[in-house]
Amino acid sequence: MANLEDSHEFRCGGRVFTASEIAVMCEVAACCGGLSRKELANTISELLGWRRANGSLKQPECLQLLERLEGQGMLALPAKRQTRPIGSVTSIPRTESGDAGATLRGPLEAFAPVSVERVTSAGARRRFRELVDRHHPLGYKVPFGAHLEYLVWIQRPAPAVAGCLQFSSAAWRIQARDRWIGWDDSTRARHLQRVVNNSRFLLLPWVHIKNLASATLAQALRRLPIDWQAQYSVTPLLVESFVDATRYSGVCYRAANWIEIGQTSGRGRQDRRHRLHGAQPKRVLVYRLRRDAQARLRGDGGQP
Fold first, then answer.
1. Where in the chain is the domain with CATH 3.40.630.30?
2. Phi and psi for 168 in degrees, rounded to 5?
3. Sign of CA pseudo-dihedral 131, 85, 223, 302
4. Whether the predicted pLDDT of 245 surpasses 70
5. Sequence-ordered alpha helix ranges (H) in the chain
6. pLDDT digits (tens, 9 = 90+) for 146-182
7. 127 has pLDDT over 80
8. Contacts of 102 (CB under 8 A, 6+ apart)
9. CATH superfamily name and code, 105-298
10. What is the pLDDT of residue 82?
11. How many CB atoms lie within 10 A of CB 223?
12. Integer distance in angstroms from the first to the last C-alpha of the chain?
């Protein structure tokens, strides 16, 4: 095993871990060989009090850190079991509910009312995953960390799902965003949980309803702070999204009052060691859920 004192700083999920905490992880991993990786991550999160604001354990983040430690030779994890790990491409059954429907074309008023409904049931979750996997260019992957999913419904000429939205944990380091907010590393670590990433936005390919995209974004952003607070006991202040300019113009975001602040570096959202290069840079757009979002994210207070 590697010498703990020779390791670099270990930061994950907005927390910096001391050498003594890393030693606890190594000790638990060594003496609890009968646990699965998930059970081990839950055990360590419990021991170290690594929780979200709502009290739930940060098991996905802990597992990611343990795998980093294993990669550096500091501990050995149990063999992987046949599960769907965070960020993996899942095998999703194809059903009729994911097949293309009749073309829907016309003004928004002809299909109103439009509603954005949170995914909470097993059936809605299966439908969301299938639609995203079949019709979004990036497909469906198990989200990392905190996340909420929504289905977009129209009511005329008959109730139908027209799209999908997913919000998830923010990217750790985005230079354009961090510069726009005014973050250094320590301030970002304290406040990153109050930024949410719009990680998937899909209007189904047979849906061509004018202004539906911007109307959907506007409605989703009105309910997102309430739903996120209810689920995770944190009220977000800012939403970010990354738009691939080779595929999309991002006009629906700007129509919904998002602002473009730069572009990504072309690495993955979790690439903290700068090891991934060559990916297509994306436009960075943000939406302030409060006017004083920047000041609050810097810890400067702001309007009550």
1. 105-298
2. -145, 180
3. negative
4. yes
5. 19-31, 37-48, 59-71, 122-135, 175-181, 185-191, 212-232, 251-255, 293-298
6. 899 999 999 999 999 999 999 998 888 899 999 999 9
7. yes
8. 206
9. Gcn5-related N-acetyltransferase (GNAT) (3.40.630.30)
10. 58
11. 15
12. 51
